[in-house]
Design brief:
Elements (H helix, E strand, L loop, with lengths): L2 H7 L10 E2 L9 H8 L11 E5 L6 E6 L4 E6 L12 H11 L9 E5 L2 H4 L3 E5 L18 H19 L17 H16 L8 H9 L8 E3 L8 E4 L2 E8 L6 E3 L1 H10 L8 H5 L13 H12 L7 H23 L12 H19 L1 H6 L1
């Protein structure tokens, strides 16, 4: 399962800030092996840890190791994983380790293991970030006034701008990119993925993909992008929920166009006035009073980034199409019997709905009167 698909499936797998519970049967850690690996590498590490596991696990398995003096998180691929590209622990570790000195919101990397004799797979360990995740609903006891909600949104956007300003060469991340043409490669890649995952009961998306290909812009810049930047991948200060203390889920980070990163974020941004279908898909509290609208997110991003303002319809359509592909890849696995999770049974409906959303944006782009009304 690729990173984007896995990110959409898992409910709480996050690299260390959401609640952890009992370790699932069949996914137990060889704690003695992990402990023996860690103690020579982590100064001051002593005693035995309390081990819990984060929910989800459709992608990487993630565990919390609570030592008396260290609060750590271990990430490893699922048992039987063969496609390293979908669960590249070494890449995740190296990207975050390289970003750390330049972007202090990534988890602190502690150790990476590529010795299969320890757990039978690669894994890495990082320091847990304590805080609040703004998921579909804020945790009990946390209430934001409209002004606080707005300040939280702007703080999150500032972190996205900060990331896009990281000097990839100075951080040693230049090798992540493939050069100019990122936008076109993404359109071609997601179009191909949709064709491979298409089932009889979903649309072809021909008009959307043809429009994307015909309107693909040149890259506005090449920078470090997160590729899954959403509020539910953000950790907020538990004492001040308007302040960001961490950003999680770096498995898809790469070098690319910053507006493509913004378009991905907009696809998940649900407003209070949106229709019932998209509100039922909401996974972050962007509907609360004071939260920015999508138009305000775009305006704030351009203002803070210094990039010249431009029409973002292409990036919004791309983000929605990409989300449709992710949903269809998940449904395809259900359709083939590779997963029995009943939550995926109606994911094919999302393809129809997201095609309609894409078409609505495309019409607004080609018809200025519609664009002004919307």
């Amino acid at each position: 399962m690729k990173g984007a698909e896995a990110g959409a499936v898992r409910a709480a797998e996050d690299g260390g800030a959401r609640g952890a519970g009992a370790v699932r049967r069949g996914e137990e850690l060889d704690l003695a092996a992990v402990d023996a690996f860690l103690k020579p590498r982590v100064p001051g590490l002593a005693g035995s840890p309390r081990v819990t596991q984060y929910a989800g696990g459709a992608s990487n398995w993630t565990y919390r190791l609570e030592y008396p003096s260290h609060d750590l998180v271990l990430r490893r691929p699922p048992a039987g994983t063969k496609a390293k590209s979908a669960h590249d622990m070494g890449r995740e570790f190296r990207v975050q380790a390289a970003l750390g000195p330049f972007f202090p919101y990534v988890p602190e990397m502690v150790a990476f293991c590529d010795d299969p004799s320890v757990l039978g797979c690669e894994f890495y360990v990082m320091r847990r970030i304590a805080g609040v995740i703004p998921r579909a609903n804020l945790p009990k006891g946390i209430v934001l006034t409209p002004d606080e909600a707005r300040r939280m949104c702007l703080s999150v956007l500032d972190r996205l701008v900060d990331l896009h300003r990281v000097d990839a060469n100075a951080a040693g991340l230049a090798a992540l990119g493939k050069g100019a043409g990122y936008c076109r490669r993404q359109v071609d890649g997601w179009t191909d993925r949709y064709a491979k995952a298409r089932t009889w009961n979903v649309p072809r998306f021909a008009r959307v993909t043809n429009w994307l290909k015909a309107n693909t812009p040149d890259d506005v810049a090449t920078c470090v992008i997160h590729n899954d930047f959403r509020l539910d991948n953000v950790v907020l200060d538990p004492d001040d929920a308007t302040r960001v203390v961490g950003i999680l889920d770096w498995e898809m980070a790469t070098l690319g166009d910053p507006l493509m990163d913004l378009g991905n974020s907009l696809a998940y941004w649900v407003e209070a006035g949106d229709d019932f279908v998209i509100r039922s898909m909401r996974r972050q509290p962007t509907h609360l009073p004071g939260m920015l609208t999508r138009r305000e997110v775009v305006a704030a991003y351009f203002e803070r980034s210094g990039l010249p303002a431009r029409d973002v319809t292409f990036y919004e359509v791309y983000g929605l199409f990409r989300l449709a592909v992710i949903a269809q890849q998940i449904y395809f696995r259900y359709h083939r019997g590779e997963t029995r999770n009943p939550a995926f049974r109606r994911f094919w409906i999302l393809a129809h709905y997201l095609q309609w959303r894409c078409g609505r944006l495309i019409r607004s782009f080609t018809d200025p009167l519609i664009r002004n009304r919307e």
